Amino acid sequence: MVNQKRAEYRMLFKQNVERRLLVDKIVRSVVVACVIIAIIPLGSILLEVFRNGAAAISIEFLTQLPGAAGATGAEELGGVGHAIQGTLILIGLASLIGVPIGVLSGIFLSEFGDMKLANYVRFYTDVFTEFPSIVIGIFAFLVIVLVLGHFSPLAGAFALSLIMFPVVARTTEESLKLVPLTYREAGLSLGLTKFTITTRIIISAAKSGMITGILLAVSRIGGETAPLIMTILGSSQFFHSFDEPMDALPLRIWRFSLLPYESSVLQGWGSALVLIFVILAINLAVRYYVFGKRINIFGLFAKQRTGKKI
Amino acid sequence: MQRSEKLQKRRLNTDKFFKIGATAAGSFVLVVIALMAYELIDGSYPIWEKEGLSFITGTDWNPVEGRETFGALPYIFGTLATSAIAMAIGVPLSIGIAMFLSDSSRKISEPLGFIVELLAAVPSVIYGLWGLFVFRTFFVDWIEKPLHNAFGESIWLFSGYPFGLDILTASVVLAIMIIPTVSAVSREIMKAVPHMQKEAAYMLGSTRWEMFKIAVFPYSKTGLIGAAILGLGRAVGETLAVTMLIGNAVGPGAIPDSLFGPAQSMASIIANEFVEASPASMHLPALVGIGLVLLLIAMAINVVAHMLVTRMLKVREGVVNA
């Protein structure tokens, strides 16, 4: 009797465990499937951009002005030289406005962050990061283009800098906060001002994190299209003044995709490849620079530790 | 003596200026948001004066001079519909990814997390290009047409003939675009669950899935909802990829009769028509008005999302800046 019960319970237990293990296995495979489903589009995008883009790339494509749309020869088709130039100018100008404001406001959040104002600033900086970029474009249009009376690269750069600075501010804050409090105390004990402590000690300790944040922001604005539609408009000339429309790579890709010619679409893929490369190149170049610097700093430390003179 | 006093004064001044400068830069964001709201209200004032509330409830859209009517309802509907479908597809996938990334060894989760975050670095116009020339043909042949053939007559959602430039294609590409955001934030939130909780669940003999069910999900519920809403905020503001895929219908026709009908979102109509609109006519104020509505919706969504997420991550503040 007892043995019978025992066998029955054992079977029930086994069934229960088997069922639970089965559910666990199913969930695990579903989760793995989720990861694979997410990776497929990325693989497909990169593959298509490289495969189709490589066919369009040539010296003319990188340096020439656009020619006749739908033409067959490479020479009549022209290239996107002006758009590459425009994107670089825009990134430069936007960084010129966005980086100082972002870094300073990151310093504010980290070093003066105990005020009530700072909490508001932190919260709204986060919210502003997620603002629809097209609304920022409208804002730049209303504030600059309408006032000036013409489309201008300045308006585009202004819009992009607005997208850029919250990202820079938050990453600067995070990397400044990682610097130990003892560094600040050491500075104070030497009688330094807060200005000197921040610029000389804290920033140099947190530099690589800040540069990573700036890069993140640059690669984000590099691909931004929506605010450029109503600020720089697009053109087929090289840049020659701030009073005229300009072109940029993302904008050009959009225009290419609207054209009904196969050759234009191919040029669109080519521009997409160039855009991805521009963003990657900026990333790699500055990261390489930071990496090189860091080795030197560590070298200095090592020499000081061992007591050798430098 | 005098010299050191002077020096002292200068040092104090430097610090004062430094503090003022930093505070000014910090307050910049508040000023910009206020100025933006003012400019958008000011720029769209004529259309509110002319149309009143029927600007939001109307469906006609006619920028021709003399017969101007502007109603933004189809575009508001388009934005909400695409975002809702994108959320329905993207959020479960993202939570699955976050489960995987938060609970597997570092060797696997770090490179995988990096790859998923790479998806976020791809510019939206390239998503659009890919969607238009690669994804669309695949999607029409393998998913939309079979759906149409199987359910076209019984379920109205699948009744229209699929062409590829429609609300469903735009939503699916949008879902792919919000996955990196939602999964990165969800991963951080799941990682913030104390290890003790997980170990306690394991100790009770639970399987991995049961551990998630009894230890991780109840603890991270608020934060996961916040992460999803953050994704919603991104989906609502997304412009280029949607513009290239949604079909760009205008007027009453922009309310689609099925998932396979062309539509228009708020961001896409601004992108399509803004340059053609003359500042002297009512067309521009109407588009700025749509921008204002979009801003209000996006801002409300983001404020709620950030409140939920920061409450969840208060211990590890600042982890979330995806």
Question: What does this 3D model show about the protein?
Answer:
The complex is a heterodimer of chains A (310) and B (322). Chain A is an all-alpha fold and 310 residues long. Chain A has 2 domains: 2-56; 83-246, MetI-like (MetI-like fold, Orthogonal Bundle), CATH 1.10.3720.10. Chain A is flat, with a radius of gyration of 27 Å. Chain A has helices at residues 2-56, 59-63, 74-77, 81-111, 116-129, 133-148, 153-177, 181-189, 194-222, 226-229, 249-258, 262-305. In chain A, 43% of the residues are buried. Helices cover 79% and strands 0% of the residues of chain A. Chain B has a single domain, classed as MetI-like fold, CATH 1.10.3720.10. Mean pLDDT of chain B is 86; it is low at 315-322. Chain B is 73% helix and 1% strand. Chain B has a two-stranded antiparallel sheet with strand order 1-2. Classes of the chains: A mainly alpha (310), B mainly alpha (322). The interface between A and B is large, with 89 and 86 residues.
Task: Kindly state the number of beta strands of chain B.
Answer: 2
The CATH topology of the largest domain in chain A is MetI-like fold
State mean pLDDT of chain A (0 to 100 scale): 85
Q: Enter the CATH topology name of chain B.
A: MetI-like fold
Which segments of chain A are poorly predicted (pLDDT under 50) over 5 or more consecutive residues?
295-310
Number of distinct helices of chain B: 11
Quickly give the CATH architecture of chain B: Orthogonal Bundle
The appropriate CATH architecture of the largest domain in chain A is Orthogonal Bundle
- State the total count of DSSP E strands of chain A: 0
When the domains of chain B are counted, the total is 1
